[in-house]
Write a structure and sequence with these properties.
The protein contains 13 helices and 13 strands. By secondary structure, it is α+β, with helices and mostly antiparallel strands.
Length: 320
């Protein structure tokens, strides 16, 4: 544990690591958040998630926990449920909001009900895909959604298991790739346009959208490699959008944040098509903070200090 001021009378524990496919990304995010908090004068302890965690937290309760766990085990609300059981304040959305946000089909339904445009999609469990016969199912899928289309697991992050399908012959391998990360695949109409990420922060004074970050991967697809390999993607912030599209991106991100019952911090992933229409793809309740992540870029573009932003969210959690 590093020295520094104590928030609410105690240290802050940053949780990172875990056992998901995104363990390495989580460790990098946690390290950066911990460093930012220390830079703001906060006493920080970094901890992995293992069998000793809960006993340690209960034996010496921190003032607040900052979960920086990515993937299903970190973003499905389970860890936060345990933190609530033992009465520890934490930064981020409550368990129920995490569950609906992490399940992509459910999230798309909630967004649509809130009046947010989202690509047409179909969910297909592995068992149904196998039992009905791949050929017949895939033919109907292509006819319904058209090409290209996006295939991805319903409950995964960092673009793991995601494939853009340009030809029907590519669909079987794309489905296998998605099923490697979950038992249900989401097949979604592919929207051509500018991909942007819009963070929303709320330190207790009300949610506000930070500048949109345009994501321009070298290979055209923002996959796992493009996300976490330095130099593989160009990020432009503020995103090169019209004033109208910029305002609409902020409105959509705020609408999603509030409709899902999120708090403290979220990041909406959107597409702005050639007509300037904004499409919702998904929302992240534990966005990455690596050296190639969009939230720190947006924070910087807003003229804010990352450590001060995170410490303000910690104070809000403690007060809550």
């Amino acid at each position: 544990m590093a020295g520094g001021s104590r928030v609410g009378g105690g240290r802050v524990v940053v949780l990172a690591g875990g056992l998901s496919h995104e363990r390495d990304v989580s460790l990098r995010s946690g390290r950066r958040v911990a460093e930012a908090l220390r830079g703001a004068g906060v006493a920080v302890e970094e901890r992995d998630v293992d069998a000793t965690l809960l006993a340690a937290l209960m034996a010496d309760p921190p003032a607040c926990v900052v979960p920086m766990l990515h993937g299903e085990t970190g973003e499905d609300g389970a860890i936060r449920e345990v933190l609530e059981l033992v009465g520890l304040p934490y930064v981020g959305a409550a368990p129920a909001a995490c569950r609906v946000s992490f399940d992509k089909p459910v999230a798309k339904t909630i967004a649509a009900r809130a009046g947010v445009r989202t690509p047409e999609s179909v969910c297909l469990p592995h068992e149904t895909f196998r039992e009905l016969g791949a050929g017949a199912v895939m033919g109907s899928l292509v006819e319904r959604l058209g090409l290209p289309l996006m295939v991805k697991p319903t409950r995964s992050g960092s673009a793991l298991g995601c494939t853009v399908v340009h030809d029907a012959a590519e669909l079987p391998s794309a489905m296998v790739n998605a099923f490697a990360y979950g038992s249900v695949a989401l097949l979604e109409q592919f929207i051509e346009g500018e991909e942007v990420a819009v963070p929303v922060v709320d330190d207790g004074t009300g949610p506000r959208a930070l500048p949109a970050v345009a994501i321009q991967p070298d290979g055209g697809v923002y996959d796992y490699t493009a996300r976490y390999t330095a130099g593989s993607t160009e990020f432009v912030v503020p995103a090169p959008l019209s004033d109208e599209a910029t305002a609409e991106c902020a409105r959509v991100a705020l609408t999603v944040h509030e409709a899902f019952g999120l708090r403290d911090l979220s990041r909406s992933d959107l597409i702005v098509d050639a007509a300037g229409e904004v499409w919702f793809l998904e929302v992240n309740v534990a966005p990455g903070f690596t050296e190639t992540s969009t939230v720190p870029l947006s924070v910087g573009a807003a003229g804010l200090d990352l450590g001060e932003v995170m410490s303000s969210l910690v104070r809000a959690a403690v007060a809550r």
